[in-house]
Structures are given as structure tokens and as C-alpha cells.
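User: quick one, sequence for these C-alpha cells?
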């Protein structure tokens, strides 16, 4: 009986240690196989939620979505690169977005000012569209108004 108990305790300790073991650096390994387009799809979803949350004055949710979007943007350079780039400087355009639009969006959220946020959102959308145009993906249009679906899907004439 006590032998079995000792065995069980040992097993539990082992499971505990295994659970505590530091995990291998998964993000890097994951993004090596992750396609650029899959990350973009997530950026699009986050950007839409960011806009909708701000329209609903759910500022904390908006800040969360922005932080998640930033993390996803940071993974782009390590992802499997898109087939069609139109020769665009993806790294430079990503950098432009993260260094100008993200701080502008962040400070508008912090101030909780809808008009300022809407303007920052429009500037960010212009950066998104600039890269989509440069990389031969002009058909992926990002709306400049917060609250709209991303990408644009309203019928064309
Ligand atoms: C540095 C260039 C660049 C920037 C900046 C950029 N994109 Fe993209 N985006 C791309 C490329 C390239 C694709 C096509 C990827 C592929 O080939 O699958 C794409 C695709 C997308 C897609 C379609 C994903 C799918 O598979 O359905 C969405 C949505 C999207 N981007 C949203 C955004 C939003 C929102 C922003 C700005 C916050 C943004 N993108 C900024 C380059 C960019």
C-alpha cells in the first residue's frame, strides 16, 4: 500500500515537473510555418474589432485589440512571405505603419476621444491600403471609418 502511494507521489511530482518545464520557444517555430496571409487575416480581424470597440466606447477592449494587432504585425517578418509582393519593400512599409499609426492610435485610445481616434484610424487604414496597392493587392480595401467590416465588402457598381 505505502509502496503504491510512494509511486503515485513520485508520478505526481514528475507530472508537476513536466508541467513546469519551460516550453520551447514556440512563437518563432510557429511563425516559420505561418503564412503572411494568415497573419494579415488576423490583423484585419483585429483592426475591425479595434474600430467597432472604439465606436462602442469599449476603450479597454479597443486597447486590447490594438495590442494584439501590434503583436501580429511584429511576426510578419518571420512569416512565410507572400508570393506576390509587386517588388514592394514590405519591411519598410510594415515599419512605417508600426512607428507612426500605432502610437497615434494608442494615444487617441488613452485620451478616449472619438474624433481623434477616428482620424488615427483613417491614417492607419491609408497605410494598410498603401501597402496593399504597392504589393498588387489593391482589391483588399481597408475602410477608413471605424465600425466598418474589414476588408470592404460592400457591392461595387
Ligand atoms: C507591408 C505591407 C502591408 C501592410 C502595411 C498591410 N498589409 Fe494587409 N496584406 C499585405 C499582403 C502582401 C497581403 C496578401 C497576403 C497573401 O498573399 O496572402 C495582405 C492581405 C491582407 C488581408 C487579406 C487576408 C486574407 O487572407 O483574407 C487583410 C484583411 C489585410 N491584409 C488587412 C490589413 C490591415 C487591416 C492592415 C493595416 C492595419 C494591413 N493589412 C497592412 C500587405 C500589407
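Assistant:
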Amino acid at each position: 500500500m505505502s509502496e503504491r502511494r510512494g509511486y503515485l507521489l513520485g508520478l505526481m511530482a514528475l507530472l508537476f515537473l513536466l508541467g513546469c518545464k519551460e516550453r520551447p520557444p514556440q512563437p518563432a517555430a510557429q511563425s516559420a510555418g505561418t503564412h503572411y496571409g494568415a497573419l494579415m487575416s488576423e490583423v484585419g480581424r483585429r483592426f475591425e474589432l479595434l474600430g467597432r470597440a472604439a465606436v462602442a466606447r469599449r476603450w479597454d477592449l479597443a486597447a486590447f485589440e490594438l495590442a494584439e494587432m501590434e503583436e501580429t504585425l511584429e511576426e510578419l517578418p518571420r512569416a512565410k512571405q507572400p508570393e506576390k509582393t509587386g517588388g514592394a519593400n514590405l519591411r519598410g512599409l510594415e515599419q512605417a505603419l508600426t512607428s507612426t499609426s500605432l502610437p497615434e492610435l494608442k494615444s487617441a485610445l488613452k485620451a478616449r476621444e472619438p474624433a481623434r481616434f477616428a482620424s488615427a484610424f483613417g491614417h492607419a487604414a491609408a497605410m494598410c491600403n498603401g501597402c496593399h496597392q504597392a504589393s498588387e493587392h489593391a482589391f483588399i480595401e481597408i475602410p477608413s471609418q471605424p465600425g466598418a467590416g474589414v476588408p470592404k465588402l460592400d457591392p461595387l457598381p
